[in-house]
Amino acid sequence: MSKKIVFLGCGSMGEAILTGLLAAGTPPQSVTVTVRRPERAEELAQAHGVTALASNEEGNANVEAVAGADVVILAVKPVGIAELCREVADALAPGAVVISVAAAVSLEQLEGALRPGQPVVRSMPNTPLKVGRGVVALSAGKAADEHHLAAAHEIFDGSGVVLDVPEDQQDAVSAISGSGPAYAFYLAEAMAAAAQEFGLSAEIAQILARETVAGAGLMLAEPGADATALRRGVTSPHGTTEQAIATFDDQGLPGIVSAGAKAAAARAAQMTEELAGK
């Protein structure tokens, strides 16, 4: 990718995207990053070879960075997105595609804070991007055509699987893949706690749970893998696993997971409304 790419903000998620982008072959010299603290700017410049500016030192850093950019990635917290858009709106090239990674910030809110006709893409990445196993859902704004969407795909392709979804499905995506890694970690916590109830040490319990969940995830990542088929392959008739799965069903685990996901989606919708009112 020979485009000029700018990251406005670069926390853990932004750096995960940046790492994947560079690993996929993007030249570091084509990337500019802005952050607040000079220490963080120096850290990013040293680690990745990119140009990094600190807005606490250079008050006009964001505006200077986006000038002439082809792709601008908004990687600050949701509460600051609209203000950031207004700050850089007039400096953006008309054809520059603006990609937001902020949860719960709608395309309407993004477009309303930018100049009319600015191409915008909303994304929902998840934290496994940090290890190149993420999943990202993209939704294109009114002015974003197939070329702008393709540019957004290029940004994330080095970090995981990229999917296109209608924006009205973004809350569902957030509830499943956005929050989903925490569900897997929660399961590992519960498995470790159960192991300790059997008398295993905390260290061994954590290793058993961690490596089992991680290993199962790798099996799911194999081409053509199917969770139901993999589960059935481990569940021998009248065996121990069958007893565990039957107990999970009796205790209503599928319904609990569904209820949790619905609560997450509802909260995402609520956050969108709250941010719209700011």
Determine the CATH superfamily of the largest domain. Answer: NAD(P)-binding Rossmann-like Domain
Provide the CATH topology of the largest domain: Rossmann fold
Please describe the biggest sheet, giving its number of strands, its sense, and whether it closes into a barrel. 8 strands, mixed
CATH architecture of the largest domain: 3-Layer(aba) Sandwich
Strand numbers in spatial order across the main sheet: 3-2-1-4-5-6-7-8
Secondary-structure element order, N to C: EHEHEHEHEHEEHEHHHHHH
What structural class should be given to the helix and strand makeup?
A: alpha/beta
The rounded distance between the terminal residues' Cα atoms is 36 Å
Q: Provide the residue-averaged pLDDT.
A: 96
Q: Total number of β-strand segments?
A: 8
Please give the radius of gyration in angstroms. Answer: 21 Å
Low-confidence stretches: none
Shape descriptor: elongated
